[in-house]
Design goal:
With 354 residues, the chain is of the alpha+beta class. Helix content is 33%, strand content 13%. The longest helix has 20 residues. The structure holds adenosine-5'-triphosphate. GO terms for molecular function: ATP binding; cAMP-dependent protein kinase activity; protein kinase A regulatory subunit binding; protein serine kinase activity; protein serine/threonine kinase activity.
C-alpha cells in the first residue's frame, strides 16, 4: 500500500484538473480493490503510548518492529461496535481510508484484527487536534483561519470529486502535522453517493437544516458545515452554540438560520459565511456544478496561493513544537484500558470483510 499522500506536484489550474482526473481513476481502483485484514493483532508493532480516546476506541502510538517508523493505531472493540451499532460505519471508514489519497487527508497504511479488536494503522500526525490548539488561543485572526480553511476547501473538493460526502466536519476531526498543515481524520460518517441521501448523522452544531428536517440532502451539507467551521475559527464559538446545549432549541435556530454575525468580521468573511450558510440549498455557495471553484474564488480567499498550499510550500502560521516521534506534549495524558481478552473470535461473520 502506498504510504505517500501524493506523488503530484501542483502547478497550474489546467494541470490540477488533469491531476484530479488521475486521482479519481486511482481512487476508483483502490475503492474496488479492498483486502481483508489478517488476524495478526498488533504483533508487527510495539505499543508506545495512548494518543487519544474516541467514542469507539483508543488510538495508540506504535512503532513497527521491522523498521523505525511510527504510526497511530486505532483500536476498536468489536463488541462495542456491535453494541453501539457502528459496524457499517467502521467498514465505511476502512473503505474510505484505503481509497483516498490527498495531502490533507489521513489514509490507511495497514489494518489487522484479532478475536476482540479491529486495528487501523494510520500515519502519525503528532501536532495534536486543531480543536485543542483553537481552544488554547480562543480565536484565529482571518489570515490564520484562511490558511486552514483553504486546506479544508481543497480536501472537500477532492472528496466531492470522488463522490464522497464527508458529513463530520469539525475542529475535533482535524489534526495538525509537524509543519502546521492539516490532516482530516475520522471517516466513519463518510458516504460514497452520487446524488442524495437521507441518513441523520453528524454533530448537532454542524448539521445543515435539511439534515435536521430529515429531508434528502446532497454534498452541499459539507459546504454548510464549512461555513460553520470558518465562523467558529474566527468568532471562537459556533454560530448556533447555546448555553446548556439545548439541542432542540439549537435545531430550531439552525432551520431558520438564526445567528449573529460578530461585528469584527470583515465584509468578505461575512459574505462567505452568509453564502455558505444558506437554508435554500439552490442558493448555497458550493452547490453548483462547479461548486468548489465557486468557493475557492470567493473574495475572502483572494490572494490565496492555492498551489503553494497544495504543495505545502507556504509557511504555516503556527508550527507545533515536536521534539521527536515519541513527543506527546501536544496530546493529553490518556490511560490505556484493555478490557477484552477472549479465546473465542467475536462476531467473525460481521467483520469477515474488514
Ligand atoms: N493519525 C493520528 N495521529 C495522532 N493522533 C491521532 C490520530 N488519529 C487519531 N488521533 C488521536 O486520537 C483521538 C481519537 O481518534 P478518532 O477521532 O479517530 O477516534 P473516534 O473514536 O473516531 O473519535 P470520535 O469520538 O470523534 O468518533 C483523536 O482525537 C486524536 O487526538
Amino acid at each position: 500500500m502506498s504510504q505517500h499522500t501524493s506523488q503530484y506536484v501542483f502547478n497550474s489550474k489546467e494541470d490540477y484538473n488533469v491531476i484530479l482526473d488521475n486521482m479519481s481513476r486511482e481512487f476508483e481502483e483502490r475503492w474496488n480493490h479492498q483486502t481483508q485484514s489478517p488476524y495478526t493483532n498488533l504483533e508487527n508493532y510495539i505499543t508506545r503510548a495512548v494518543l487519544g480516546n474516541g467514542s469507539f476506541g483508543t488510538v495508540m502510538l506504535v512503532r513497527e518492529k521491522s523498521g523505525k517508523n511510527y504510526y497511530a493505531a486505532k483500536m476498536m472493540s468489536k463488541e462495542d461496535l456491535v453494541r453501539l451499532k457502528q459496524v457499517a460505519h467502521v467498514h465505511n471508514e476502512k473503505h474510505v481510508l484505503n481509497a483516498a489519497r490527498f495531502p490533507f487527508l489521513i489514509y490507511l497504511v495497514d489494518s489487522t484484527k484479532c478475536f476482540d479488536y479491529l486495528y487501523l494503522i494510520l500515519p502519525l500526525v503528532n501536532g495534536g487536534e486543531l480543536f485543542s490548539y483553537h481552544r488554547r488561543v480562543r480565536k484565529f485572526n482571518e489570515k490564520h483561519a484562511r490558511f486552514y480553511a483553504a486546506q479544508v476547501a481543497l480536501a472537500l473538493e477532492y472528496m466531492h470529486k470522488m463522490h464522497l460526502m464527508y458529513r463530520d466536519l469539525k475542529p475535533e476531526n482535524i489534526l495538525l502535522d509537524q509543519r502546521g498543515y492539516i490532516k482530516i481524520t475520522d471517516f466513519g460518517f463518510t458516504k460514497r453517493v452520487d446524488g442524495r441521501t437521507s441518513t441523520l448523522c453528524g454533530t448537532p452544531e454542524y448539521l445543515a437544516p435539511e439534515i435536521v428536517q430529515l429531508r434528502p440532502y446532497n454534498k452541499s451539507v459539507d459546504w454548510w458545515a464549512f461555513g460553520i467551521l470558518v465562523y467558529e475559527f474566527v468568532a471562537g464559538r459556533s454560530p448556533f452554540a447555546i448555553h446548556n446545549r439545548d439541542v432542540i432549541l439549537m435545531y430550531s435556530k439552525i432551520c431558520i438560520c438564526d445567528y449573529k454575525m460578530p461585528s469584527y468580521f470583515t465584509s468578505q468573511l461575512r459574505s462567505l459565511v452568509e453564502s455558505l450558510m444558506q437554508v435554500d440549498t439552490s442558493k448555497r455557495l458550493g452547490n453548483s456544478n462547479d461548486g468548489s471553484s465557486d468557493v475557492k474564488s470567493h473574495p475572502w480567499f483572494q490572494g490565496v496561493d492555492w498551489f503553494g498550499i497544495l504543495n505545502q510550500e507556504v509557511t504555516a502560521p503556527y508550527q507545533p513544537t515536536i521534539s521527536g516521534a515519541e513527543d506527546l506534549s501536544n496530546f493529553e495524558n490518556f490511560e490505556f484500558k484493555d478490557r477484552y481478552k477472549s479465546r473465542i473470535n467475536r462476531h467473525p461473520e460481521l467483520f469477515a470483510n474488514f
